[in-house]
Design goal:
about 200 residues, alpha/beta, six-stranded mixed sheet, two-stranded antiparallel ribbon, about 15% strand, Amidase_domain, Peptidoglycan-binding protein, N-acetylmuramoyl-L-alanine amidase activity
Length: about 200
Amino acid sequence: MAPPMSAGRFIGVLRAEGVTVVEVGDWRKHNRNHKGAWGPVHGVMVHHTVTSGSERTVRICRDGYAGLPGPLCHGVITKDGRVHLIGYGRANHAGLGDDDVLRAVIAEKALPLDNEANTDGNRHFYGFECENLGDGEDPWPEAQLDAVERVSAAICRHHGWTARSVIGHLEWQPGKVDPRGFRMASMRERIHARLK
């Protein structure tokens, strides 16, 4: 059981891993903590946004939209590889997911197929939204994939987790397809190599 790191420690571990960080507004205090607890944390969840344009994407993820208030993650990874920190604490990114998947993440074992949505993921995962249309054709520049790798490794390194603690939204919640355009297994291999 790991308590979330402080916002100051969070930005510090990202920078130590070589992440280019952009601080957006009052990100350290922008959260949904009034809706429930954040923590203990068990992993990192990666998403795509189904948006284009970095400025617009960051704004949507920070502010949310009708029916889903922001922040929609902790950091937005734009195509240029920058990580825009938009919130810290509970964020509307993971939603309900499979308790068997959470147990596998905690145990750092192979993930089972997600077949139910009965567990609050917003409480247990750091979340990163990646600027991408999610159509399988929009490219994922190497700078962006490198940033996904680095933020994930930074958080895993801090908590003493392995790459198995990093999952995609599609591995958590039935019906989700994100991130689409690269394989999470390949990303975990990259994270594993960085953590060596």
